[in-house]
Amino acid sequence: MPFVSELIGRSVADVDGERVGTLKDLLAARWGSMPHPQIVAIEVKRRSDTVLIAMTDVAVLIAPAIPLKKKQNEIECYQPGENDLFLLRDVLDKQIIDTNGVRVVRVNDLELTRVNGGIYVANVDISGVGLLRRLGLSFISRRLSKSGRQITSPGTISWDNVELISGDEPMRLKVPGEKMAELHPADLAEILSDLTRQEGSKLLDSLDVKTLADTLEEVEPDFQASLIEQMSDERVVDVLEEMAPDEAADLLAELPEERSQELLKLMEDEEAEDILKLLAYPEDSAGGIMNTEFIAVPPLLTAEQVLDVLRESAHEAETVYYLYVLDEESHLTGVLSLRDLVLAQPSVPISEIMETRIVTVDLNDSQEECAQLISKYNLLAVPVVDREKRLHGIVTADDALDKIIPTAWKKRLPRMYR
Amino acid sequence: MSSIRARIKPYRARLLLLLAVIGPGIITANVDNDAGGITTYSVAGAQYGYTLLWMMPLVALALIIVQEMSARLGVVTGKGLGDLIRESLGVRITTLILGLLVFVNLANTVSEFAGVAASLQIFGVSKYISVPLAAVGVWLLVVKGDYDTVEKVFLIASAVYLSYVASGLLARPDWLEVGAAMLQPSFHLDVGYITIFVTIIGTTIAPWMQFYQQSAVADKGIRVENYGYERLDVLIGSLFAVFVAGFIMIACAATLFKHGMLVTSAEDAAVALGPLAGKYASVLFALGLLNASLFSAAILPLSTAYTVCEAFGWESSLSRSVKEAPVFFIIFTSFIVLGAAIILLPIQSLVQAMLVSQTINGLLLPVILVVMLLLINDKRIMGHFTNGRVFNILAWVTTVILIALALFLVFTTFFPGVFGSP
User: Fold this and answer.
1) Are the Cβ atoms of B219 and A417 closer than 8 angstroms?
2) How far is CA B222 from the centre of its chain?
3) pTM (two decimals)
């Protein structure tokens, strides 16, 4: 099927064969459930001005010269709707998000297709072949493919998997397409690092607080700080409360002192207290990366009772796989895995099934020591205790490993550029 | 709340805004005085004495005008120049401009490695040792180095530029004469003079600078409200660059020109400075050249790879594996390999490579400027941050003068002898 770049510049003639002008742009609109936008009008460049003509007045679009159905002076101007896309102006050569491949790419061309008499935008061409076509050098790619060398780069993306980033119209990303909402926060973070700062902030503005918090957790703290720089305090507070306390503490530590004090004052007391506790420890220590939302149970309960406690109180906890058994003064006396608990007889007191030889780390131990213990004993999390063996928090495997295997998002290239 | 202090660096809060913004302009301006630049200024000073000094304030003004526009484009759009050209002017113009830019930048990279070879030859190191070492070192620094180290290395490198000021002072110029020359414009219609004129402009306002600075500004995410600080950054950077350039000219004029010694390269200048201004002046001059060459040999390939990938939508990243950003790595690596190899092959004399690349800069510059002016005056892109009337007149006048000079240079190159031989 034809490409937009091939149509642009073709001459447009009225019903009598009188020349009107040349094709300048195509307008497309999305209807309801149809994922592909339909061409609704064309923009024609006349000698001294341009005119929009509805597709209903165009006899054939995909033709060497485009004939209209009416006479030149009978043409009515098409009024573009709010959601109409000018394909050349708004899409071609711009960057888009490929939600399937989770990356930001540049549009080299657009492929059209005919369905039930309507013409729709089918695919986005991001290939080198598309580039050559735009440069009028298609013969190179033809020759290469004739000579047997297939250039089958993953060159086209279906419009289904495309999300527009529009710098000009801030509204466009306000309602993130369902496509973006379905992405994993780690993928969103990946895309974020590919976007320019301005586009990035727009993307963040469009996310709900929960997704935003999850996404920020996937990003390095110094990049986080620059991302939330422009957000309102209320939104940042909501996000901080949603984030795990250790992540929130990291983020606050990256901000200027005045702003972080301000934010802490605005936060709920309980959450702010948790974060302040963490901030007292060095960044790379167990105390600095630990999570304070763990499940603690008294030693006298039975397995069944503990399961009930779990159902009620586990929503906030970072991990439910370990339960920590504490005495009245918060001393860690035992650890219970979810497996032990589920397999145990309901009436057995947990003090009988809990593990009492516990691997722990001190508040001031380094992140690396945590990672080593976790790896050595095959743990999912390791408890953090003070000198008196009082439990303060837990370091989960992913937090401990962060240092050794950096989060998957790529380091932004241009620190050198900063 | 005092516990929070433990992890927050106190200087940050106070200097945050300024530090956050300062940078791109100053770094760009520093790379500006690269091997080609130093050669040009030395030759100019040795050949014409103080008589070219009057143009430096004007060059500074032109540099500020151009770099201010580049910074403004970056702040307002949040995009690099390659990016903007592609989005606003389409594939063909992008390919044309970037094609030229790649060529010019490659020529410049060659001249950087020539600078490395030349400066170390003064200390008796063969170019067959210095150039491969420099190439590998630069590649490793950029690809494997972590960014904090690289940033520190570059900042220290910036300070080394002051060695030229020291050389200039050691050369004991007659300051009254310098002052008089600054205020006394002179112009000769001979090919040599015009060539050095265009070359000085081409090397001071090099085309890659606009691409590099705009990407840097955009990436830094400077907000429009803080644009004043960025303007200051550009201003300081541009003035510093021209200040250093002026001192190079003064150092050579006060010594080499006074004694009627003709030099054709920066290394000649460095060697010749020895007996005239003392050993330290000579060593400082050579060290400055080495530093400048290495600094720019790292930045130019990086900037080129970044610009090309940005415009064509290819993955650009250093920390991803080669497989994920192949084009980026190919461009970056081949620039360094080619730059070093061309110097080692006995194809062209080193000096020629240096001077020619600076002159081509001068030819590409007007093209870039016209494109920038078109973009910055586009309301769809810039909103109400387009050029003001006075600024626009200044910018266009600068552009027209540069076009005229470039055309003149092309003309004299193809029809030598019209204005008398140099």
Assistant:
1) yes
2) 22
3) 0.77
